Amino acid sequence: MNIVNIMLSGVGGQGILTSGRVLALAALDKGLDVKMSEVHGMSQRGGNVDSHIRIGESVPSSLIPKGGADYLISFELMEGLRYLDYLKPEGRAIISKLKITPLSSNLKKGASYPENIEEMILQKAPKAKLIEAEKIAKELGDIRMVNIILLGAMSKDFTLLEKSNFENAIKQRFSPKVAPLCLKAFERGIENG
Amino acid sequence: MKKLMLGNEAVARGAWEGGVSFGSGYPGTPSTEILEYLVKYDDVTVQWAPNEKVGYEVSVGVSLAGRRALVTMKHVGLNVAADPFFSSSYMGVNGGLVCVSADDPGMHSSQDEQDNRLLAKAAKVLMVEPSDVEECRWMTKEAFSLSEEFDSPVLLRMTTRVCHQTGVVHPEEKIVLPEKKFVKDIPKYVLLPSNARERRHKVEERLKNAMKFGNESDKWNPIFRKGNKIGVITSGVAFGYVYELMSDEASIMKIGLTNPLPLERMKRFAESVEKLYVVEELEPYIEEALKAMGIKVFGSELRPYTGELNLTIVEKMLKGKESTKVTIDLSDAKINQRPPTLCPGCSHRGMFTIFRDMGLKVMGDIGCYTLGAINPLKSMDSCMCMGASVGMAEGLDKFGGEGVSGKTVGVIGDSTFFHSGITGLIDMVVNKSKATLVILDNRLTAMTGGQPHPGTGMDMKGNESPRIDLVELCKAVGVKRVRVIDPYNLEEIKEVLEEDLKAEEVSVIIAKAPCVLGFKVKLGNVVEVNVDLCTRCGKCIRVGCMAIGEKDGYPVIDENLCNGCGVCVQVCEPSALAFKKQN
Questions:
Q1: What is the pLDDT of residues B447-472, one digit of tens each?
Q2: Where residue A150 sits, what CATH number does that domain have?
Q3: Does one domain contain both B250 and B386?
Q4: Helix (H) or strand (E) holding B252
């Protein structure tokens, strides 16, 4: 059974569940089976959030084991680092170069964020792609486009699905008003992937 | 046509296809979305109940009226509804009655991980368990037929990974049901002891018939045959792991109708294989049934007794190896936890800051405000179950002694108070408690995503509905000291608390301000830091707000997050924090 595993991670409210949905719709558009698993509930309260997506001819179960992900798409650097051990040795990470500092509780304790995090990620996963997704989204005029940009970057060498599958999924998921910008964001993602 | 759906959405779809007339329940992760999807079907009446017991009872009434009813809750919600759940088993149904229990193995968002399969067995009702999203659809639909056929409420037992799994479904059309009416039937519906004793035999007969059905049903309890060396019996979400790992080398039996268990079918299957495993999450429910028949089986001793299963655990159970290995070592990476926190601007923050600074003993409850227990607020001393804060505050205050009695408050959200706090308050009044109850009134069931409750004044469709007035309610049960305060005014909170804690009678403080997330409230101008005035005392950072960070030992405000609530401004003694003047 050949199943491709994609792990998404980030901070609640970043649009992780939305990109997962687009990816799953793209798989359906291609006529493949897909299962996605996520944990709701605390997702709007600034906690870390993940979503497991598995695509193949037939997908019996929905959770990706640690060390089993072909792709890791992360919306934030520390959440990229946290989930890095989900990757297979040949797996690929696409991580947004965004830092969201977790809640501090002490002024004198020093930074609550890992130092030199980009270097650390690249040292542990040399093929990881760190992307200025937020900057590109701002250029496009809508910060919410980060999730589509990251999907675009991931789609670049994702041979299982065609570009048209993603485009159809975007058109299904978003209103005709927002979809054109999403398609543009998807292109910019491919360029930067 | 294939469609992508969330498990909970597929339950709603299945219920609709099965001709459900009514849905009720109380929000609780991971069950909440079922009713939120069901309400989108215009031909179904869907409403939130103040608690699971009421939701269940209204649904029983709908069933008596001859209509099909769905009631949804999280696993601990079934504890609240346990009284009607157990008794309705003796009554049986008229229209089909399906109760969803969404269990939470691993406790992603729950206070325990009880396995409600045991409750279905204890209540002697039928139980079905979907293992994926398509099964959520058809099993829900068929559960109504089972309910009517076997004259039993049906427990649709789900788990987090089924509720919140998205997958492919094959929607069908809605079925047409023959019309049914209410039928007067005192021996069946009036559970006087003499009637109940008669009904007890009907319950036994029903279980016998349902077991016979399960023994013969390839649809509910399918067997995937592959050799006779290894056999695996499994159910629910565990089936996916087993099938993925073992479909080429073991015979697999999936049980979809899990109460009553198809004992004869299980026995025949066990006899057909050389080595038998049971793979199930949490309690050894299927395993014990096999062992009781004297069948040798491997299962719970090979897996953790707590938490969810996954491919790695199941592979180790069945094959004794792990083919997926972690190759990236993160042990040297200092990755901080990122716990959920109260939103910037949340009306609970000031309250918990004052509770902490006054050194109060806080009996907490279930909701967003449970986050008041997390660093740096750390101002909650207990959180047990829905509504418990009230009774626990009364008990602790009465017997706590010095430093505790007269320093104890119960803290409960408005939705939780309507759910099961009212009776606790009645107890406080009639048993002459002197404790103080704080009701955090933000007009929504916020933690589960902002559902309306009896104090919201709005129904599920957004239409206006009667609004229960908390002040009048508290007065009506006999509380004389009821005060409404502004939870953003720290002075006021402190003053009122000090007065009420001294009072020789029950006091209720209603901290009233709408949920900033649910009602999209922008409170004021953002805050700025004057570093020259800052003494680095750290009081601002200890209000626990995501908008306040730290840079070079000084606080910094994230203007994109700051909602302008001013709690940090009020705790800053040197006035280094102030609202920014509008440009």
A1: 999 999 999 999 999 999 999 999 99
A2: 3.40.920.10
A3: no
A4: strand B251-255
Q: Which residues pair with B259 in a beta bridge?
A: B127
Instruction: Answer whether residue A1 shows pLDDT above 60.
Output: no
Judged by a CB distance cut-off of 8 A, whether residue B324 touches chain A is yes
Structure tokens at B422: 């009212």
Inter-CA distances, B516 with A173, B130, B212, B402, B565, Å: 27, 37, 54, 38, 10
CA angle, residues B325, B330, B333, in degrees to nearest 5? 175
Identify the residue among A53, A77, A101, A107 best suited for mutation to test binding to B, counting B beta carbons within 10 A and taking the highest: A107
Q: With an 8 Å Cβ cutoff, is A12 touching chain B?
A: yes
Q: Does B312 touch chain A (CB under 8 A)?
A: yes
Q: Give the domain extent around B430.
A: 348-512
CA B457 vs CA B35, B213, B319, B443, B485: distances in Å: 19, 47, 57, 9, 20
Rounded mean pLDDT, B395-423: 98
Total of domains in chain A: 1
Q: Beta strand pairing status for B3-6 and B257-259?
A: unpaired
- In terms of Cα–Cα distance, which of B75, B76, B66 is closest to B97? B66
Among A1-5, B298-302, B414-418, which is the least confidently predicted range? A1-5
The yes-or-no verdict on residue A107 having pLDDT over 90 is: no
CA B51, CA B453: separation in Å to the nearest integer? 10
* pLDDT score recorded for residue A109: 66
Question: ipTM strictly over 0.90?
Answer: yes
pLDDT, tens digit (0-9, with 9 covering 90-100), for A42-61:
656 778 899 999 999 999 99
How many residues in chain A? Answer: 193
